[in-house]
Sequence to fold (476 residues):
Amino acid sequence: MPISFTSHGAAGTVTGSKHLIEVQRTDGRTLRVLLDCGMFQGEAVRDAKQDPNREFGFDPTTIDVVVMSHAHIDHSGLVPRLVAEGFHGPLFATPATRDLCAIMLADSAYIQETDFEYDVRRARKKGRPLPEGGPLYSTEDVAPAMELFQVIDYAKPTEILPGITLTYTDAGHILGSAAVHLDIDDGERVLRFTFSGDVGRYVDRLLPEPVRFRQADVVVCETTYGDRDHAPVAEAEAELLKHVTEVCVVGRGKLIIPAFSIGKTQEILYTLNTLSNEGRLPRIPVFVDSPLAISATEVVRRYSELFKANVREELVKDPDLFNFPGVEFVREAERSKQLNAVKEPCIIIAASGMMEAGRIRHHLRNSLGDPANAVLAVGFCAPGTLGAKLLDGATEVSIFGEPVQVRAKILRMEFYSAHGDRTELLRWLSCQKPAELKKIFLVHGVDHSLNGFKELLTSKGYSNITIPKRGQRFLL
Fold:
């Protein structure tokens, strides 16, 4: 009987991860499993005639279960809207993903509300038509969504629907991230289906390497960095220290680090903590200016059993790997505003990583005009985002609707990306026998990364590789 796969997001773009599996069983019943329910960001929203976040491409009331790969907003950010529009089934996730989603979705709802209010005020001020539709969802929509979460640990096969068994393996991307493995019995055969979620790194960092997994018939693989490799791990500490020294010690400026609240913020703090313990970090103030990042760091501390073994051993000597002399965690908005008046050299770590929302925009507006300052991008910035524009060399950007001159240095470090590069993606797939793979779908990438990884896979003997378009349905 037919089993189909449709990408309703992260197809030809990096954001909006949303993939639908439909299983028509011999008993006449059709089962629908939604993998991730992420938010579109950047040019995927700006270049669209209609906001793609307001149209799922399917009826939420027909979805039986949702299976989450991890908590990042481009994979989880539309869950409250899905529930508000009628989804009432179970939503499966690892325990850490559930706990991170609780704070991520609440923060996202607050941003939806405040951004919409700002758009209304600005429209009225400029005499323009008021925006329609309201925020994507409200803070009141988060609690009903969180009540639907059911947790499944890694390597615990669980029947989530009749004939459909879910097994999670650690993807090594962020805390709680997982590759999704489904064994789908439609009454005539069992299809082995794997969805990568986001694949992590094979380097000496906080989290273990991605885990090998059983042979699949169909694999859906992300390709964020499918056409390039990251810098070697040995260079990372030295490079970060070099930027700190050149900007803050020599140049007497501010080093602004836009970082995702989950994953990158903790990785950077871990590196700075290591440098501090070794006596190599210059004595300059470090501000973590993100309530979400602070809450996320508290969650990460609670799940220290998910760290690599050598990192857990470090906890014996240093019980807090994210705190060191000179660091201040800033929750209050008033204290955040005071940082704008700080004239001495400092490091400011703030969300969001793509520079699209959160307190980072205030710091950029305040700091971009000073050539003594620098912005250090430490991860992927989707096309069309403020971060991508700065990395592309923009000399002027718009922040809060006003032009801002860019005189600060724009720096980049891809080591802190939580996404595996092309060599690491290939390593993740190395447990598979190419001859037994009936189909590979490449998602979560832009054209050059999608096509680059497809060419690499083809050169390694993989075949039947497809780059789906949004809404394109495939029979498996």
